[in-house]
Amino acid sequence: MLGRKKKGLKEGAFVFATQSNGKYNDFIVGAVTGINGKKIGINGIIVDPIGLKNKVEQGKAGQRSIEILKNPNPDNCIHSLIYRIEYENYTGIIDLNESQLLEIPPNVFLTLDGWVRESFSELLNNVLSLPPGSERDEAKRIVKQRMDTLFDKNLKRTLYAICRSLKILN
């Protein structure tokens, strides 16, 4: 598993947390800004995987997708980032009595944060939602060009793996 339990958490550590949003959970990735007992200050981003929620509501996704939406974690949340997302900057306090919080390695934080901030969800969703043809081919070229310009090796490796599994690279 990519995340570790909150053992010895310090300011500046990278974390993954969840926050309830209706019957599913959004997730937060960020850095710890303060610790006061069971309350942890976080500065980062909060992600609402709206595309995956829509797939589930339309009956086009299975149990695995529902599990990802109900219990996102650093290992499975990348699957929710394939579809359209909404995100915003997050500065808040997580109460450990109410929410799950895991410390994550810096490379996992950079991969998730980079994926969101580089708009890869939107790019992949464009490819997946277009019918075969010249528009879809152009969308694939754009994804490939963006991948080729990435400096972060972990983000690039993750993106290539996802694109291969979705048959976007061919």
Largest sheet: 5 strands, antiparallel
Instruction: Please give the count of helices.
Output: 6
What is the number of beta strands?
5
Give the distance, in angstroms, between the N- and C-terminal Cα atoms: 30 Å
Q: Which spans of ≥5 residues are poorly predicted at pLDDT below 50?
A: 1-6
The pLDDT mean sits at 90
The strand order across the widest sheet is 4-3-2-1-5
Number of domains: 2
Beta-strand residue percentage: 25-35%
Report the helical percentage. Answer: 25-40%
Mind telling me the C-alpha Rg? 17 Å
Class by SSE composition: alpha+beta
Globally, the shape reads globular
Structure notes:
Helix content is 39%, strand content 26%. The protein has 170 residues and is α+β, with helices and mostly antiparallel strands. It has two domains: 1-105; 118-170, no CATH class. A five-stranded antiparallel beta sheet has the order 4-3-2-1-5. A hairpin with a 2-residue loop joins β1 and β2. It starts with 13 loop residues before the first strand and ends in a 5-residue tail after the last helix. Residues 1-6 have low confidence and may be disordered.
